[in-house]
Amino acid sequence: MRDHALTRPARRGLAAAAVLAVLVLAGFAALRAIAPPAERADSAPAGEFSAARAFEHVRAIATTTHPAGSAANDTVRTHLLEALRGIGLTPEVQDTVTIQGGTLSASAGGAGLARVRNVVAVLPGTDSTGRIFLVAHYDSAQVGPGGNDDAAGTSTILETARALKAGGPLRNDVVLLLTDAEEACLCGAKAFVDQHPLARDGGVVLNLEARGSSGPAIMFETSEGNGELVEAYGHVPYPVGTSFAVEIYRLLPNDTDFTPFREGGFQGLNTAYIDGAAVYHAPTDTAASMNRDSLQHHGDNALALTRELGGRDLTALEAGDATYFPAAGLLIRYPGTLVWPLAVLALIAVGLLGWLVVRQQRATGRRVALAGVLTLIPILAAPAAAQGLWSLLVLVRPEYGGMPIDPYRPLWYRLAVIALAATVVLAWHALLRRRVGPAALAVAGLGWLAALGLLLAAVTPGGAYLTTLPALAGAVAGLIAIHVPDALAVVAIAAGAVVATVILLPTVVMLFPALGMPMAGVGAFLTVLLGLALIPVADLVHPAAGGARGMEALRARHRGAAPTLAAAVALVACTATGLAVDRFDAAHPSLTHLMYALDTDTGTARWLSEETDPQPWTAQYVSAPPETVTDSLPAFGDERLRSGPAEAASLPAPNLTLVTDTRTGDGRTLRLRLTPQRTARFVTLHIAAGTTVTSATVGGRPVGDLSGSAGGGWGFGFVFHAPPQDGVEVELTVKGTDPVRLRAMDGSDNLAALPGFRPRPSGVGVLGSHSSELVAVAKTYTL
Ligand SMILES: [Zn+2]
Prior knowledge:
With 783 residues, the chain is an alpha+beta fold. The protein is built from 21 helices and 24 strands.
């Protein structure tokens, strides 16, 4: 009986070792290429970006929490204006009110508005063909100082502007836009797009963000028709971006300032570093938490890209979407029009390989088909097992359930997931290799990659390269391997495996921080795909299949089981190391969510929490099962919260006064003033569901969509972020002349002064949510 593999070199052990060594080297090179560059000192030449210089701004911006409208945010804005003046620019402040449609976290049933103060400065070009906008937000989330989000982007723009000024002027105008109220409602960007004269002609937006504290600055989102911009991005010194990320990003509940620009018809690229996401929006998002190599990465690329685009003709940017991904320090890219031809070519190549394998009697057609079906086992089992592993970790350490994206130190868990996927693939391969045949399994693996390439081409074309190219490379390698001497065949197999590794490994590594451990199954899935592309390599590790008897067969079986065992040991070791390394402590606290709501109608108060399975600290405050609180707090919408009784604090509700009341035919027009009586981050107003509102103007802005409904007896409403001290003017026209019932609420962000609040012990922290530590005071008015 003969061995039915694609290749069977005489010295299999040596061949296996050589190919594995090449693969490890290729893997390391691929990962090095997406690592951030080292921080440059403040002595770096003036024309260069220095993370050390930029970090001085980070320190100034992230001194304390500074949400839109806060006094601390005024201080940050002053710093920005001074810094821009310091490099010879003439910044201005766009001070306006804007409306953002859609439902937001605290505006159930209607509109989100904000007073915003954007900082805008222009570096005029010599012969401008269009504008380049460098955009980042300077406001922070309400419980975190925003050391990364978005002091990273803001400081990058300040240091980039300084470096640009130090060089000569560019051909095109560069507009620096430091936005306000991004965290509240993307309102700063929205206000600029809708109202600022500089936005009238559109342009190219480079938005800079951080959703974590480390990792490469990944270019993860583009406008449509990105071919030319991606080509320009290919000129940055450290390109890290993949067309697959755009598809992944759409799965995530995040939004950035880029959205209003994209929807407003601007072109552009969106970049963020996203690893270390445990600090996201939390009090731990400090300047000290920032990895300054990530800041250097942001800056090196932003500066180079601005210079590149600054010299181009921006009037002719229209192009189709490109496929792109990082490989060996370059950005590989090809037009989207090649996605389908390549996907079909890969399928044909794999089909041809399968046909030849059958014709050469390396496998029967029946066995190739059987292998195809059996390949579903690792494809389905590894992701399921990875999700199971995370569930198990949450069971062992319940605090993980409260981490929104990732644990503090997820590295060992990510490695465990990769080891788990490897264990599944290797065990599956070792068990089936003799029964189904190595060539059949190899062809089936490539067949699945090619088939997925077609599926991705149809569903998410930007991601099709992930499986199409490894399938194509693997099939071509296989076709060569079955026609040349074994020594050369090994080289072909190695080349195919290197292509798969260089393409898939960086994506696996970028995907883990993007989705976090709660979605570890996706990382396991991609690892399995890499495993399927590497079956011919795994095959070399096994002794030749068939023929052996007795002791020889037993030894062969032991050798065949070794890779599976090694992967399983790695799985256990990585999981155990992860549990030992990633403990909760004062610097890495577990994350809890608590709010307080006072109803001045009844003089009663309660604690509220988003935690569905409350942690011990939170459980002291909330005991009731999760339920909606819309009847008394319409701004919370259909969110289900746990609650518990609280002492009533002596806090004043927002004041709602009737300025004028005009009867018009069968209705009334009410002019109202809604004024918080304390320092509030936002104020909301909801109208009883029985009243039909026919028009509404808030802060001078007409509200277009009045169809929203908060539930719990309440209809249309709005949230106004960063309300001025003297309140917000509201004009409502309603049907009928009956008295109108309205519910007013405001919100601030500090539980510490409340009666009955006991400070968190060391090791227990605050969840970076937009409603953490919220103090809400509500009152009903009948007018
Ligand atoms: Zn941000």
